């Protein structure tokens, strides 16, 4: 049985480009659909957050403001309720070791831009996991978490790797627009990643060796499935 660590942001707010504060959290579909897919395949899925803080779901991911139908919102809400105990008692990111897991899985929502993108404990985990060939999966804005992994000279651990992420076009169409703290696609390119994006809101997943990335919430199930496939191929 594969053992997977799902790393979820603990942030509930994000400072925008204009200095204002925007409420945020994890995106419901990305946690619910990913967790359900991984669990259904027989994987053990532990949840960890910075400081073992119970993560906050982004309210926008559970209603029409976030482009989510009521039917889907009810489904995601019900699943999150079913794993409420796991979400309420996450592991502390600082206390887990990469050697304990076959894969690391990072869902998004804008929240990872606020904490995971510069979390030293996560950076340590990612670098160790990558050096061991452990599967690393990140989804949507969760790909921002990869930025926490840096080389001794300040470079980006994943420079030169091919990946996808929430695109600049999507950020302008249905995200924070020009008020975003940074455009993730552009920043990843600046840091040296090779970014491949599909059409806006398309189910797009990119696999580069042990690195699995999904573009947006629509890619949640496919990203989880690609993670499972990468595990079977080890």
Automatic annotation (TrEMBL):
CDD domains: GATase1_Hsp31_like (cd03141). InterPro entries: Class_I_gatase-like (IPR029062), DJ-1/PfpI (IPR002818), Prot/Nucl_acid_deglycase (IPR050325). One of its GO terms (biological process) is methylglyoxal catabolic process to D-lactate via S-lactoyl-glutathione. Residues 87-228 form the DJ-1/PfpI domain. One of its GO terms (cellular component) is cytoplasm. One of its GO terms (molecular function) is transferase activity. The keyword Transmembrane does not apply. Keywords: Glutamine amidotransferase, Transferase. This is Type 1 glutamine amidotransferase domain-containing protein. It comes from Streptomyces adustus.
């Amino acid at each position: 049985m594969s053992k997977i660590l799902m790393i979820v942001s603990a942030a509930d707010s994000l400072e925008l480009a204009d200095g204002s504060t925007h409420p945020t959290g994890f995106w419901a579909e990305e946690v619910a659909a990913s967790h359900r897919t991984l669990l259904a395949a027989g994987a053990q899925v532990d949840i960890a957050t910075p400081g073992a803080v119970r993560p906050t779901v982004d309210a926008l991911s559970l209603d029409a403001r976030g482009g989510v139908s009521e039917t889907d919102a009810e489904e995601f809400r019900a699943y999150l309720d079913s794993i409420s105990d796991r979400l309420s008692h996450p592991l502390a990111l600082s206390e887990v070791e990469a050697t304990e897991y076959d894969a690391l899985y990072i869902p998004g929502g804008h929240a990872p831009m606020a904490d995971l993108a510069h979390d030293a404990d996560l950076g340590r985990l990612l670098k160790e996991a990558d050096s061991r060939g452990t599967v690393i999966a990140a989804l949507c804005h969760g790909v921002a978490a990869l930025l926490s992994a840096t080389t001794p000279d300040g470079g980006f651990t994943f420079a030169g790797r091919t990946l996808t992420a929430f695109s600049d076009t999507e950020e302008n169409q249905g995200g924070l627009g020009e008020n975003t703290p940074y455009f993730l696609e552009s920043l990843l390119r600046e840091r040296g990643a090779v970014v491949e994006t599909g059409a806006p809101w398309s189910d797009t997943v990119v696999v580069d060796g042990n690195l699995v990335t999904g573009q947006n919430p629509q890619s949640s199930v496919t990203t989880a499935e690609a993670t499972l496939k990468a595990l079977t191929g080890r």
